[in-house]
Amino acid sequence: MSKILIIDDEKSIRRALREILEFEDFEVDEAENGKEGVKLATQQYYDIIFCDIKMPLMDGMEVLEAFRKEKVLSPVIMISGHGNIETAVEAIKNGAFDFIEKPLDLNRILVTIRNAKDKSSLVEEKEVLKKTVRKFKGSSIIGETPEILTIKEMIEKVGPSEARVLITGENGTGKELVARSLHDNSPRKEETFIEVNCAAIPAELIESELFGHEKGSFTSAVKQKKGKFELASKGTLFLDEIGDMSASAQAKVLRALQENTIQRVGGEKNIKVNCRVLAATNKDLRKEIEAGNFREDLYHRLSVILMHVPSLNERKDDIPLLAEHFMTMVCAEHGIPRKKFSDAALKALQEVNWTGNIRELRNITERLIILCGDEISAEDIATFANPKK
Questions:
Q1: I need a surface site. Which of 13, 264, 290, 319 has the fewest CB within 10 A?
Q2: pLDDT tens for each residue of 216-272
Q3: 290 and 154, same structural domain?
Q4: 194-216 burial, b for 16+ CB within 10 Å, e for fewer?
Q5: What Rg value do the Cα atoms of the chain yield, rounded?
Q6: Same domain membership, residue 96 and residue 204
Q7: Residue 319 lies in a domain
């Protein structure tokens, strides 16, 4: 049974609406003022909310604003005996689903309810999908070996905190996946996750990329640009391959982490930033510090929590699970029926020397799917992969 909330200071209006709605088999709650209505709407979900505009204590527009702040997703139908086109437009702009003038017309009410219920169903479906996607993301680290189970436990513990994390491991082991899982398990999961590959950006551009620049600060700076620290504010900034960052950029990142402020290139204004910083590297930063290539103070700022992602050769018992996962994913991407690995083929995959780690396994799985028959054999692995002698 659909549930409807009526917020109106006039008892006669509440009674009339309740009689109409209960006759149509709706379950109805009432609130005699805006504050009471906001309290009810934040405690439970209503399929539709009717809200008067002119009320004491808190008027209808203030109720809409409170709903927006509290993320109340129910469609809100505004009602008023003092309405005009300007009032209706303002209500819609502030998030109302529709506007009905008093005296209330039965047919108009029922048509609006039907339309609002359609929207309510879509909102509900969207929320279910979002939860499903979040659940999938949070469980997308495939594996059951002790090393991977340890990483999953760490993500559950560390994700909800604000602690900075330094993720280490070889190329292709899934460091970005760990960073995304930390973000998806954090209070910032609804905000942006921004990745910067420090090794892919030229040294002369990395500072502009991270901190932004002012118009005219250098030859090609034809307009002001926000950097990744600003864009990731309230969210998560993932600095991949941090070991390849220039000395100048390292100094500025250190200052940003210490003071939570940045300056754009060519600017003098301090800009407050609020992003959680995660970093990753395939280098031994201790050795880089000894060689004078990486700042020790920055290392300590970044490595509040250290997480090491094992190579695929260190977790070969996970290869069958990963291969089956990539089989399902790649076949879906190509729009072809799912193929099958023979038991011997899965054992053969465990004999390969995976220098490219998980990225290499994914690529070889795709190659096997494209070039082989419905069942992939050990002979196919020998032909298209590189078994260790």
A1: 290
A2: 888 777 788 889 999 998 999 999 999 999 999 999 999 999 999 999 988 888 999
A3: yes
A4: bbbebeebeeeebbbbbbbbbee
A5: 28
A6: no
A7: yes
**Bond prior to 103 in cis (omega within 30° of 0):** yes
Alpha helices in the chain (DSSP H): 11-23, 34-43, 60-70, 85-93, 106-138, 146-158, 175-184, 203-211, 228-231, 247-259, 285-290, 296-302, 319-334, 343-349, 357-371, 378-384
Distance CA 89, CA 303 (A): 52
- What single-letter DSSP state applies at residue 221? -
The pTM of this model reads 0.65
Q: Domain count for the chain, please give it.
A: 3
Q: Is 21 exposed, middle or buried (0-12, 13-18, 19+ CB in 10 A)?
A: buried
Distance CA 125, CA 388 (A): 49
Position 389 in a domain: no
294 burial via Cβ count (<10 Å: 0-12, 13-18, 19+): buried
pLDDT tens digit sequence for 277-328: 999 999 999 999 999 999 999 999 999 999 999 999 999 999 999 999 999 9
Cα 139 to the chain's mean position, in Å? 14
Residue 354 belongs to domain spanning: 313-384
